[in-house]
Amino acid sequence: MTCKACARAKQEPRSPDYKTGCLSCSARALATGPTYFEAQQSQSMTPPYRNALRAIFGERWKAGHRLVRLWARLISRQRSPSWEQSQRTSKP
Is residue 58 part of a domain? Predict the structure, then answer.
């Protein structure tokens, strides 16, 4: 994690806070965007996703891809507030 927004996102991966210029924030934003979603759905490195990685990370785009995947896993593991609320109010 490289900034205060990343530190917060480590605790709350769906945090809306991002810092311009932070590569980790950029990876987190990409992990929630349509280019990564489409690549994930097609199970391939789509040209739009690769281009986005190269635009953000340059020659280190493969390392950037690993960072995007890390954030995507963290985000997907976090339960949504509405899900947690439904679990507290549901009766067996």
Answer: yes
- Burial track 10-34 (b if 16+ CB lie within 10 A, e otherwise): eeebebeebeeebbbbbbbbbbeee
Query: Which residue carries 């493969």 as its tokens?
Result: 62
Number of structural domains in the chain: 1
Judged against a pLDDT cut of 60, whether residue 58 lies above it is answered with yes
The percent of residues above 70 in pLDDT, for the chain, comes to: 84
**Parent domain of 67:** 33-76
The answer to the question of residue 27 being in a domain is no
The amino acid present at 40, given as its one-letter code, is: Q
Q: Kindly report the number of other CB atoms within 10 A of residue 5's CB atom.
A: 19
Angle between helices 61-77 and 47-57 (to 10 degrees): 110
* Residue 57 domain-assigned (yes or no): yes
